[in-house]
Give the backbone structure.
Amino acid sequence: MCSNPPLWCNWTIQVDPAKRIHLHLEDLTPSDACHLKEDQVHLDEPVGHLNAHKVLQKCWREAKYTSLSNIVYVVQLIGGWPSSPYRGFHGRYQAFGPPVVYNPQEGLPHRKSKPSPGILDFNELADENHHPVSENWYTAVPASTQGSFRSGRGATKTSSRHSDSAVSPASSQQQGGGPRPRGAGSPAANVAEARLSEEEARLSERLSEEEERLSEETRLSERLSEEEERLSERLSEEEER
């Protein structure tokens, strides 16, 4: 998707407004060459969120990121050639919704937003000779801004420009001779869905704990302000006396 340095490439992951994004990135650069790597991978969210910017560089190997919004921007800055001509990274993401609260009086809860796993192929691999070694093509953007991506050395993007593309899990379809997705009712799919549900529960619990901690800090701050006001009033009374 990126050819000759110095260049930059960017992707936009956008899901339903009520959902958030769990992103998993893996570096494909060999261990003996990663210390020479000058590339940087930036993760950003829209302005107004706390963890709005992360930077991955050198031998980062693997990274996981959970967004606070429904949009994540992934930007790769190409800074030079490492000793090995093969480099890049692979990413996948999962969109998940708010937690479902069980009410015994209403019976089993109705899931309004089922986790919808999606795979975004972030492979950015370059070769000085630009000889492709793989012919597996993937559709990674909606039909209105459709562009094809392939994995392998010297991989290039077939669309005419590098631009932000909103990627939806429902729009990711495989073409050509690539592997077909497993059926939703297969044992592997059921196991994957169970794991995703467990991950969703853990993330939701983590978010609830963070919200409780922030609420406690807010209450402590309010108490401190009240004590300061009382102390100020007492000092004023003492000065008047």
Q: What stands out?
A: DSSP finds one helix and twelve strands in the chain. The longest helix spans residues 187-240. The chain has two domains: 8-181, 184-241. Confidence is low (pLDDT under 50) at residues 110-184.
